[in-house]
Amino acid sequence: MTAHFLGESSEDYLEAIFVIRRLRGVCRNVDIAAHLGVSKPSVTKALSNLAAAGLVWMCGHDVRLTEEGERAASTTLERHRFFERLLAESGVDARTASAEACRMEHCLSEESFRKLAEHLGRGGR
Fold first, then answer.
1. C-alpha–C-alpha distance, residues 29 and 24, integer Å
2. 90/54 Cα distance (integer angstroms)
3. Where is the HTH dtxR-type domain (predicted)?
4. Structural domain includes residue 125
5. Are residues 90 and 65 in the same domain?
6. Do 99 and 43 share a domain, yes or no?
7. What SS3 class is residue 100?
8. pTM of the model
9. What CA–CA distance (Å, rounded) separates 119 from 58?
10. For the chain, is the Cβ count within 10 Å smaller at the N or the C terminus?
11. Residue-level pLDDT at 5
12. Which residues are registered as beta bridge partners of 56?
């Protein structure tokens, strides 16, 4: 399963796990719930779905990304940072830029995203 076929919610969960693990080295359900502002039962259900899709696995209470999950999370985070920078450089305040980048990261196809990044001279992967 590639990031292209994931839903917005799944991409957000993968991105959250990726970011939390980078910051703390470990990621627990409670960390994801706090990061995304959702309930712990919602996290449990989402992680079950992501595990069934082969994108995450649990090691005790530590949530880890599979190789495929990490690729999807990295792609989503790349898009988020791209749009966040674009908005911030355009004069949008940081909080609004981050919130709106979170929505924008999901709405373009991979091809359109790459073409936009190239057009703006910001490359991409």
1. 13
2. 38
3. 1-66
4. no
5. no
6. no
7. helix
8. 0.84
9. 40
10. C
11. 62
12. 65
Phi, psi of 65 (to 5 degrees): -90, 140
Structural domains counted in the chain: 2
Same domain, 57 and 88: no
Contacts of 4 (CB under 8 A, 6+ apart): 109, 110
Classify burial at 69, counting beta carbons within 10 Å of its beta carbon; exposed 0-12, middle 13-18, buried 19 or more. Answer: buried
Looking at 43-123, which runs of residues are DSSP E strands?
56-59, 62-65
> Smallest Cα–Cα separation from 76: which of 68, 57, 95?
68
| Shared domain check, 91 and 54 | no
Across the chain, mean pLDDT equals: 91
Using the 8-state DSSP alphabet, how is residue 1 labeled? -
Angle at 72 between CA 101 and CA 54, to 5 degrees: 140
pLDDT of residue 6: 78
Q: Tokens representing 84?
A: 């966040």
Residues in the chain: 125
Whether 9 and 66 map to the same domain: the answer is yes
Beta bridge partners of 63: 58
Q: 15-33: b or e for each residue (b if 16 or more CB lie within 10 Å)?
A: bbbbbbbeeeeebbbebbb
- Cα–Cα distances in Å, from 122 out to 81, 83, 86, 117, 118? 12, 11, 10, 5, 6
